[in-house]
Amino acid sequence: MAIPEAQLDVWSAQGSVTQSKNTYASLKAVLEDPASPYHAKSFTILLQGSYGNDTNVYADSDVDLVIRLDSTFNYSLENLSEMAKTDFDSAFANVEYGYADFKKDVLSWLFTKYGSAVHPGNKALYVAGNGNRRDADVLPCVSFRKYRKFNSMNDQDYVEGICFFFPDGTRIINYPRQHSDNLTWKHQQTGGWLKPAVRILKNMRNRMVNDGVIEEGLAPSYYLEGMLYNVPTDLFGTTYAHTLTHALAWLAKTDRSKLVCANEQYYLLWKDTRTSWDPDKCELFLDRVLDFWNNW
C-alpha cells in the first residue's frame, strides 16, 4: 500500500528555519567584517543548498554559504567566434588576485574567528556548530561567465555562475542562482507543491538510508531537487500521495537522458562528471524508492 497522507504531511514539513537563519546571519557578519584580509575586494555572499532553497528537512544540519569573488572572474569562450575571442582577450587583462589567494584569505580569516572549529575540505570550508550556531559549509569561489556573445565591453552577453577548483586542479562550474530561481519558479507554477514534494522525497531517502535499503550518498538532495524539477507541472497537486504517485511513475517511464538540472545548464544524468548524477545511481534510487513506496 502507498504511504498514508498523514505520514507524507509530516515529511513535507520544513526543518529548522530560525536556527539556520541565525547561523547564516552570524557567518555572513563574520565574512563581511572589514578587518578580513580580503575586504577590499569585491565579493558576494549567497545561500545555496537545502536551507537556501527551502527544501531542508529536520535531518539536515548544515547551512551552505557561497562567498564569491567578483573583482575577477573565470570564463568560457567556447561559444564565441575566433574574432570575438580576440576582442575579448584585448578587452581584459590578467589579474594578480584570483581564486587561490581568495580561498587562502577566507580560510585564514575563518581560522582567526573560529579556530579549531574550521576544517578545510576539497571544495568547502566546514565550520562546526557551537551552541545555537549550526554546522556550516563555506564555499570560496570566483564569479564565472559562460559567454554567448562578446563584441565589446558594451556589447556582451553571458550566463553568470560560480567556479572553484579541486586540489588536483579540476575546475567545477555551477549555477546556484539559476538553480534556486528555477526551483522557486517551478514551485509557484505547481501551486506550492514542488518544495514539499522534495522534502517528502528527501525524508523517504533518509528513511531508506537508516533502514539500510540504500547507501548514504546515493541520492544527493541537489539531484532530487533537479529530478522533481523535470516532472510536468500538471502532475503536482490534490494530495501529496497523488503528487508522489504520479511524479515517481512519470520518472520511471520517461526518457531520463533528457532530464536537466534545475539550473538548466547541465543534463541531470551524465556519467563521469562532477556536475551531474550518475544514471546508474538514479536508476537504483528510483527502483528502491518505488519499492519503498509500494510496500510501506
What is the terminal separation in angstroms? 6 Å
CATH class descriptor name of the largest domain: Alpha Beta
Main beta sheet strand tally, sense and closure: 7 strands, mixed
- Can you identify the CATH superfamily of the largest domain? Beta Polymerase, domain 2
β-sheet strand percentage:
15-25%
Shape: globular
* Count of helical regions: 10
Oligomer: single chain
In words, what does this structure look like?
The protein has 296 residues and is of the alpha+beta class. The chain has 10 helices and 7 strands. The chain has 2 domains: 18-174, Beta Polymerase, domain 2; 179-294, no CATH class. Strands 1, 2, 3, 4, 5, 6 and 7 form a 7-stranded mixed β-sheet that branches. The radius of gyration is 21 Å and the shape is globular. The termini are close together.
List keywords for this structure.
296 residues, alpha+beta, Beta Polymerase, domain 2, 7-stranded mixed sheet, 10 helices, 20% strand, globular
Layout of SSEs?
Elements: H1 5-11, H2 18-31, E1 43-48, H3 49-52, E2 63-76, H4 82-91, H5 99-114, E3 118-120, E4 125-127, E5 136-152, E6 155-165, E7 171-174, H6 176-189, H7 194-210, H8 221-229, H9 240-253, H10 279-294
Parallel strand pairs: 2-5
Antiparallel strand pairs: 1-2, 3-4, 4-5, 5-6, 6-7
Helix pairs in contact: 1-7, 7-8, 9-10
Could you write a compact summary of the structure shown?
The chain is of the alpha+beta class. Helices cover 41% and strands 20% of the residues. The chain has two domains: 18-174, Beta Polymerase, domain 2 (2-Layer Sandwich); 179-294, no CATH class.
